[in-house]
Amino acid sequence: MERKLVSITVDGKTVEVDPEINLIEACAVAGAKIPSLCYMKDVSANASCGVCVVEVEGAKALVRSCVQKPVEGMKIRTASPRVMNARRTAVELLLANHPADCLSCIRAGTCELKVIAETLGVRASRYPKLKKSPPPDTSTEGLVRDDSKCILCGRCVAVCAETQGVNAIAFAGRGARTRVTSFMDKGLANSPCIQCGQCSVVCPTAAITEKDQSSEVMAVLADPRLTVIIQTAPAIRASLGEALGMPAGSLVTGKMVAALRRLGFAKIFDTQFAADLTIMEEGTEFIQRIQKGGTLPMITSCSPGWINFIETFYPELLSHLSSCKSPQQMFGAVAKTFYAQKAGIDPASLRVVSIMPCTAKKGEASRPEMDSAFRWWTERAEKEGAKTGAEHYQDVDWALTTRELARMIRQSAIDMASLPEEKFDSSLGESTGAATIFGNTGGVMEAALRTVYELLEGKPLPQTDFFPVRGLQGIKTAEVPVAGMNVKVAVAHGLKNARALLDDIAAGKSDYHFIEVMACPGGCIGGGGQPVLPDMDKKLARNKSLYLEDLRMPERKSHQNTEVNTLYKDFLGHPAGHLAHELLHTQYRARVV
């Protein structure tokens, strides 16, 4: 039953609005845009910043519009002198304790505090600095917390607690000593933080950012002794354009490849190649568990934030995880073995860079077990009685976020929008539509089902698209008839949703066979390394773009990837074989904090 609308007047204009929305949204209906720093739709509304105040006729004090709902007959002024003075004062108080380093700040151009200060005409603060901040927290591989830039908006606390259910950070202290911090100020590395980066996406300033490694990558690109190759994740093609000023959801696959060539990468490969490879391994593993009585439900292992979560909060359920590495790590292992051997490159001088929508990928690349190429070459040398003499190296050397790549492109004065469409390099660049949709929640599940069905049934799918696992609902379920059995699957994105599925497994109540979990809301399209300040419309635009690219691909099933099939024929042998397990699979372990 639809709610009865209420009539309100905003700056002299009368409109009808839903009584359950807040005044920020209600005033927007009348064309009035109210600024706010603490409010973010579907994330946070705690009325802490004081920037969103409006004047309501009959009210003694100004009203904070992020927490006030409209009522019948309400008359609102959004830009009266009293309102504007209050907003300017709130911003000046924030600026008093804020470092004046806008020219060098990593959020230059995307800082909400700076935008609102400019909009209100605030050029300086009349108030003294009262806050002393500790040095930045750089304890994790993926994130940096700079307390000097925190405006106590609470968005990071809300998204960590309410969306992810992690509670790695919280408010501490009172009054002027209030700050956001990890438990006992021990640093994010010693907290339950899973490095998903959702805090960095919603932060209005540079209080929480990715650990920027773009300058390191630019330095190695200039080193003639090194061969630097790059892989790009599926979701990047639908978000990089947005980070460079294009409309949300712009598909820039070919232009992105052209820009990377101009940055100086020796070869530009596609992580989607490794996504197809992942499906071959993961699909085979699932079939083996079904046929041989393995641990069910099997849960996907592509999202490193999710892996950190289950290792921290549900270590007793680790046997349910697929042993497959993520596509990023499969690519790194293959690049530094098969590709290096084929191209005649010393793997010790080969550098693998990945562009990911995720801050947790940085930590994943540095995990000690992600050095399988080094171990493979060392064992090979020992068998041949030779000494490698090579220093230890990881399969993936740097994992950069979408935001870092956008900065590299801007710094190099590359106008990506004007570049021609170019193609990925061959041998590790071919992919199918199944790999493209890895960037969406439900995409890994759909890609796996496309292949598992045809491998078990021995005939083409009657319908390639699995619509029940698509969309942005928190948990999606489906039953798929395959080879005489109904395969029950579930898909969750956002870790609070994942908890519900895990609790059922722990209680012995789950009857699913296969579960996909993505740490970030929306999947990789909403990853912690994506363009900041996402809203539902932006996520939907990225989501639709990936499904559109899937439809355009000549092949849409992972087992149809000819380069992947050649890799098995010439190097790996067969899915789930000995060498495949050595290079493409791993084990996960309990994490104690």
SSE diagram, text form:
Blueprint: E1 6-10, E2 13-17, H1 23-29, E3 53-56, E4 63-64, E5 75-77, H2 81-96, H3 112-120, E6 143-145, H4 155-163, E7 169-172, E8 179-182, H5 198-202, E9 208-210, H6 214-221, E10 227-232, H7 240-243, H8 253-263, E11 267-270, H9 271-292, E12 298-299, H10 304-313, H11 327-343, E13 350-356, H12 360-365, H13 372-383, E14 398-401, H14 402-411, H15 433-436, H16 443-457, E15 475-482, E16 485-493, H17 495-506, E17 514-518, H18 536-552, H19 562-572, H20 578-584
Parallel strand pairs: 1-5, 10-11, 10-13, 12-17, 13-14, 16-17
Antiparallel strand pairs: 1-2, 3-4, 3-5, 6-9, 7-8, 15-16
Q: In summary, what is this structure?
A:
With 593 residues, the protein is an alpha/beta fold.
In words, what does this structure look like?
It is a single chain. This protein has 593 residues and is α/β, with parallel strands linked by helices. It folds into three domains: 90 residues, Ubiquitin-like (UB roll) (Roll), CATH 3.10.20; 80 residues, Alpha-Beta Plaits; 370 residues, Rossmann fold (3-Layer(aba) Sandwich), CATH 3.40.50. 36% of the residues lie in helices and 13% in strands. The chain starts with 5 loop residues before the first strand and ends in a 9-residue tail after the last helix. The mean pLDDT is 96.
